[in-house]
Design brief:
Low-confidence stretches: none
Structural class: alpha+beta
Strand content: 15-25%
Oligomer: single chain
Shape: elongated
Mean pLDDT: 87
Radius of gyration: 30 Å
Order of helices and strands: HHEEEE
Largest sheet: 4 strands, antiparallel
Strand order of the largest sheet: 2-1-3-4
């Protein structure tokens, strides 16, 4: 065997050190990839949860819109200026109404009771039946009187005289803001929420 052939034979194969170095490099390269896959799975799950949360928020918003604007609304749905009532809290519901039973709610203000102890967890349908399939979500509602601020800028603001609750007559305007919040914990354990808002006016409905 010639000297050249002997040198070629010696160069074939890898040493144990080379193999170990290659494995370390491979592992170091895989760690970020595994983390990226994990983050992608969490993000995908969170996106799905956010979609469901938006649907739950819109569902409750539509439910609220079907109620009277005010406890004292007339047959046409309009509440006279002198008859506008204060917005309910859980501790001050109208006679025959209960914050624990939405079927007793007959006007927008009643839904303001869905806070604190009475946050929907799990969410309840319009018949007040718990929707167990959405047990990871909770829903709360805030209703406030709004005032149109001529500005600048021109916009709606929460009636400042009493925090929008309308506990005094000057704070009872012809506009109410309804805010529905749906909350849940993401796959990473972080608190998430979506908020839907709308403003309803005191007008005759037909």
């Amino acid at each position: 065997m010639s000297v050249a052939n002997k040198k070629m034979k010696k160069k074939k194969g890898y040493t144990l050190v080379e193999i170990m170095i290659a494995m370390v490099v491979l592992v170091l390269g895989l760690i970020p990839l595994v983390k990226l896959i994990g983050d992608s799975l969490v993000a995908t799950s969170d996106l799905g949860s956010r979609s469901v949360a938006n649907e739950l928020a819109q569902d409750l918003m539509e439910e609220i819109k079907q109620r009277k604007w005010d406890e004292n609304a007339g047959a046409d749905g309009l509440t006279a200026t002198a008859s506008r009532s204060a917005i309910n809290l859980a501790a001050s519901m109208d006679a025959g109404e209960s914050a624990a039973n939405k079927t007793t709610f007959d006007d927008i203000d009643d839904y303001n009771a869905l806070q604190g102890t009475f946050v929907e967890h799990p969410p309840r349908d319009a018949s007040n039946v718990a929707m167990g399939q959405y047990s990871k979500f909770s829903r709360s509602v805030q209703v406030r009187y709004m005032r149109f601020n001529t500005g600048p800028p021109a916009n709606f603001i929460v009636e400042p005289t009493d925090g929008g609750l309308g506990t005094t007559a000057p704070g009872r305007t012809d506009y109410k803001q309804i805010q529905v919040t749906v909350s849940w914990s993401s796959g990473g354990g972080k608190g998430r929420s979506v908020v839907h808002q709308t403003i309803m006016a005191n007008i005759a409905r037909r």
